[in-house]
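Our preliminary data section would be incomplete without showing what the modeling component actually yields. Below, a chain of 546 amino acids is followed by its predicted structure, encoded as tokens that our downstream tools consume directly.
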Amino acid sequence: MPIVDILRKNAELYGNDDALVELNYDAEAKKSWSEIELVEPARKFGFRSVITWKQFDDIANRFANYLISIGIKKDDKVAILLMNCIEWLPAYFGVLKTGAWAVPLNYRIPPEEIQYSLEKSEASVLLFGEDTLDRVESIHENLKGIRQFLYTGENKPAFAKDFSSAIIDFDTTDPMIPLTDDDFAAIYFSSGTTGLPKAILHKHRSLSSACVTEQKHHGQTKDDIFLCIPPLYHTGAKMHWFGSFLVGGKGILLRGSKAEWILRAASEEKCSIVWMTVPWVQDVLCLLEDPNFDRSKYDFSHWRMLHIGAQPVPPSLVHRWLKQFPTHQYDTNYGLSESTGPGCVHLGVENINKVGAIGIPGYGWKTKIVDEDGNEVKPGEVGELCVQGPGLMTCYYHDEKATNETLRDGWLFTGDIAKTDEDGFIYLVDRKKNVIIMGGENIYPVQIEDFIMKHPAVKAVGVIGVYHERLGEIPAAIIELKDGCACTEDEMNEFCKALPRYKRPRKIIFAPVPHNPTGKIEKPKLRAMYGGTRVVAKQNEISEIS
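Predicted structure:
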């Protein structure tokens, strides 16, 4: 069914129950205000804003009716360029209720990429906020395809309309535009870690299937409270929330990802399910393990599950977590925006003994691992992971070549190198483009990163290939240490002697490790910074890699 039907159902069954809570602890420190009206009105007290399911649906209907009044129709495109906020999801569903396509954009991208994304998607309306004001202002005259700019926040620019003021006088009656599962719903942009982001087109069928898959995996009930930290423009955040959305559960939208904020939100809001990226888990663990941290001030009794995604998860990180929360269920999820985010592969809460694997095919999904010729490989052999299921994208919008390279005979070729064990569990080896070839030997950086993450002083690590005069390239480890911890190059080289000789990093660099908003290590940035370093060959070095 079209995903907007789920919102209609929630508004009918749970209209007076809280649907969304926005937490902005940064605002708490800067200002306070008395109860004010948002649109419906939201209950807003300082740092905490709340809307019920009826208010959620009413705001979506007002926005839909406003869009229809300015000429937006089925298959038009409306872009959303906002940080997580109480307006985000009602606006998204308002777009879908018109039959138009929602186009969520990364609020951190530079002006030229904002313009590229708007032009690529053919968006005609842009909703943006304070956090992107300067960038949108710098390019708005070039955005000839945008016929209406909408703004939420203070300091509204002259070229835009205020979102709340624009929609407040419109009817809360649902426009009931006829929709089916096969109607197009949204364009999501890839993270762009290998170049300009691709425009990924999904139907309502994909979005609705993500709700079912997520709920089947994690058993959300109406009583569960989901803490959403990642940015909503990304499928990895919204599609995990979809499991709670399906059953009418409350969602907590946290603006920011500081460790103390995450723990405070989980405690005060009585959250039961939290999804985080590896860097956030690392930060939270560092805080929990700090001898000065006073755990008695927090109540984590409602917290039942942690799941991690967006990148390979070091097993050592999970074991550290379970020392802090031994009763927690744990799951890891693998997915791509091309597969409607998480869920095409997941570990499963019952398979904690397989930590290190990304898991087995998700609910309704199939997987296979193939060689360069497309033939399935045997267990233990590496190849490219392919997935097939109800959440596959339709295409890369206006990019037939890239579509044909990625979608073949109903399978999505992910570009990720993986292998299975004897029980059929899938282990992610690395991205196809990240493989380092040293003297003819394939080296997978994730395997080295997982090992280095076991060092007690290491906060994050990214391994890349560095140019080598004789071997072609060698592995270099860029290592970010925890605050207050020290480690020398000699100490790290000694630690890495436990690795097979050919996998040991040949260059150690202590420096910050950049991550994108979804927690993935930005390997292109590391390559740009360090990959051009020339390393002169040593005598007899070929023999050292065996």
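Residues 29-41, 536-546 have pLDDT under 50 and may be disordered. Residues 262-267+279-293+311-431 form a domain with the Rossmann fold fold (CATH 3.40.50.12780). Preliminary results of this kind motivate Aim 1 of the renewal.
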